[in-house]
Specification:
Bound molecules: pyridoxal-5'-phosphate
Keywords: Amino-acid biosynthesis, Aminotransferase, Pyridoxal phosphate, Serine biosynthesis, Transferase
Structural class: alpha/beta
Number of helices: 10
Shape: globular
Helix content: 25-40%
EC number: 2.6.1.52
InterPro entries: Aminotrans_V_dom, Pser_aminoTfrase, PyrdxlP-dep_Trfase, PyrdxlP-dep_Trfase_major, PyrdxlP-dep_Trfase_small
Distance between the termini: 30 Å
Number of domains: 2
Catalytic activity: O-phospho-L-serine + 2-oxoglutarate = 3-phosphooxypyruvate + L-glutamate; 4-(phosphooxy)-L-threonine + 2-oxoglutarate = (R)-3-hydroxy-2-oxo-4-phosphooxybutanoate + L-glutamate
CATH architecture of the largest domain: 3-Layer(aba) Sandwich
Order of helices and strands: EHHEHEHEEEEEEEHHHHEEHEEH
CATH superfamily of the largest domain: Type I PLP-dependent aspartate aminotransferase-like (Major domain)
Family: Belongs to the class-V pyridoxal-phosphate-dependent aminotransferase family. SerC subfamily.
CATH topology of the largest domain: Aspartate Aminotransferase, domain 2
Strand order of the largest sheet: 2-10-9-8-5-3-4
Amino acid sequence: MQNRVFNFNPGPSALPITVLNQIQKELLNYKSTGMSILETSHRSPEYEEINDSAIALCKEFMGIGDEFHVLFVGGGASTQFDYIPLNFLPVGGTAAYVDTGTWASKAVKEAEKIGNVHLAGSSKDLDYTYILSTSELDIPEDSAYLHITSNNTIKGTQWHSFPDTENIPLVCDMSSDICSRNLDFPRFSLIYAGAQKNLGPSGVTVVILRKDFLEKCNPDLPTMFDYRTHVNKKSLFNTPPVFAVYTLNLVLKWIKNLGGLGELEKITKAKKDIIYNLIDTYPDFFRGTVREDSRSWMNVTLRLPSEELEQKLVAKGKESGFVGLKGHRSVGGIRVSLYNGVPLEAAEKVAEFMEDFKKAN
Ligand SMILES: *Cc1c(COP(=O)(O)O)cnc(C)c1O
């Protein structure tokens, strides 16, 4: 593919080339309607088919049934930081949160504006370089829910086993690792994710919501901030982000064609192994920033011996067709984001490039 770079952008991020080609192919005339999906009513049968298909594929991949609702809403994952306590933190109640990095901290900050928050655990003591074990968490028995962030996009850590919360509903921000690996999805009461990292473009947020959890929803909420509004209208109460949901559906179909989440997980593992192997082979040059048992399969974060070398690697990378390797401005260093849309070949090629860079420097 001429002029296409290897794209490691942290979000919005790479989309599968087959998805982009299909969008291009049907952009002017969607399914013989004589118009673009961009110009199509969200009340049309064409859009209904897209909405239904995306819901069905999410359910299929996550192994969830009619005990869950699947919503596609606007506002990004950040708006969910407010939705969740507004809907599920009762007056006088307490919600437990685990603080594992930038996005988790933001979720805590929003919930504190709405009600009582109990910090069940934090890895701030070591600059968020690890994930707490279940025994390190302090979850009050009467918590309305426990909120965690499955993958910490900026710090490069990821939960590899989840706390057993028994009767306390588990709520999870999966924005940067949703549908990249097989998980026991039904154990979560609420999962949410901005689509722009693993499942599509920005503009749509996926919300997976257990029906029995929804029954505990607070009364008298503003209409648009009440989950029931969107559940009752199948995400069609107001105009949904049609083009984003259409693209999301194409990405889900692409995953289906690969063979589903099990197959995708194999690719995810192969990609992260290639980059971590570099860190393990040359630990003095490529210094991993997080504890080994907490390594993210999506965002590999590392430091080089000097900031000068880091800048040089980013610049050289860009010249050689590898973009998006700069660490988040708040942490510096290098970050290799390996979301679903990043092909295995990209991980192989960037590892070769990095190894050559090491030898030359
Ligand atoms: C990117 C990201 C967000 C923010 O998503 P928006 O859709 O931009 O609001 C939240 N949480 C995590 C874990 C993220 O990676």
